[in-house]
Amino acid sequence: MKPGSPSLFFFTAAALLAASLLPCEAQLFGKKKKEAANEQPELAPGQFEWHPERSPSGPLLIVVSIDDQVAYVYRNAVLIARSTVSTGAPGHDTPTGVFTILQKNKDHESSIYKGAKMPNMQRLTWTGIAMHAGELPGYPASHGCIRLPLEFSSKLFGITDMGGTVVITKKAAAPSASSKPATILLSSNVEPGSRPAAQFLGQTMWDPKRSPEGPVNFLLSGLDRTLYVYRNGILIGQTPVHIERPDLPIPAGVFLMLEGVDEQAAPVVRGKAARPWATLALDGGSHGNAVQELRARLQIPEDFGKRIYDLAQPGTILLTTPEASTPETRSAAGFTIMRP
Question: Which of 20, 33, 78, 280 is the most buried (most CB within 10 A)?
Fold first, then answer.
């Protein structure tokens, strides 16, 4: 399979993009590789570890490190598996970003490469990027896909769901579970047909009938000072938010809602318990500091917060960027965040 752009929607760490994949220069995680991998023993090509008993339930997060040629599987922010991989060879680079699983097929055959068999295929873009079993020479060798050991690919296939989150990055890093979830417990994800527009900044909109069912995700733009709410990639709401010290950029990050509630954290919405989050920094900052900073600086209108509190469920993704989300005002793109 070859790299390409997703057909529905995506955004950059700096902003929402148009419908084409841009070169990725920024790293998703700023940690050093040793820290990120928790100094675990190195795996030989084709080797993997599988310990689902470490965390029996909760949302899955798959992190693929191109530099390490390793995939890390987290459930409820606990590392339950890791495996060697082979990503795209030079000239066929695997795109970095945040993807969702679009399609699953245990017996897939490529329509691009003359019927090449791709067992346990999990599609990440409609234009040729997927995870599947394949040869693992110990270095990047694919046409953009993420090759996995056959047994590992089968095990992974068995625990993932459609719409699951896969992060592909240059460096590896473990998500940190914070006892203080972000104040923006409810923020937005973005897609092409529902792209934010400059003329609507500062306005409140709530129209859940646009997409009555499906997963909800959020995007917070610091420059817009706006929180966007998406369901199935369709914009169903947005609201202006207050950010203390707006001259200071907010942390850029990916937040994954975990199971349960956080009894020790102050409620974000009055009368509602705070939720626990795993966080992945986009700017190399401290995960804990990013969460605390957002809680301290961000205020969501109370009525809007109550509307969307129950929409956020374990596995919900919140993305934050200090940049604009609108094509008219955003700066140059770096890391690409996609939800096809």
Answer: 280
List C-alpha distances in Å: 312 to 61, 171, 187: 16, 29, 9
Domain 176-329 falls under CATH 2.40.440.10: yes
Q: What are the residue ranges of CATH 2.40.440.10 in the chain?
A: 9-169, 176-329
Q: Which residues contact 245 (CB under 8 A, 6 or more apart)?
A: 297
Instruction: Classify residue 302 as exposed, middle or buried by CB count within 10 Å of its CB (0-12, 13-18, 19+).
Output: exposed
One-letter amino acid at 292 equals Q
3-state DSSP assignment of residue 178: strand
**Cα–Cα distance for residue pair 72/292, rounded to 1 Å:** 26
- Give the closest residue to 131 by CA, choosing from 83, 170, 175, 91: 83
Residue 290 to residue 279: CA distance in whole angstroms: 9
Nearest to 184 by CA among 259, 89, 277: 277
DSSP sequence for 76-118: TTEEEEEEE-B-BPTTSPPPPEEEE--EEEEEEE-TTTTT-EE
pLDDT single digits (tens) 219-229: 888 888 999 88
**Cα-atom radius of gyration of the chain, to the nearest Å?**
19
Measured between alpha carbons, how far is residue 284 from residues 32, 117, 133, 175, 304 in Å? 10, 38, 32, 12, 31
Burial 170-196 (b: 16+ CB within 10 A, else e): bbbbbbbbbebbbbbbbbbbbbbebbb
Taking 3-state DSSP, the helix, strand and coil percentages for the chain, each rounded to the nearest 5, stand at 15, 30, 55
Q: Do the beta carbons of residue 3 and residue 317 sit within 8 Å?
A: no
pLDDT digits 0-9 by tens, 254-302: 788 888 887 777 677 778 888 887 777 654 444 456 766 777 788 889 8
Structural fold of domain 9-169: L,D-transpeptidase catalytic domain-like (2.40.440)
Residue pair 121/130 in contact (Cβ under 8 Å)? The answer is: yes
pTM of the entire structure?
A: 0.70
CA distance 22 to 18: 9
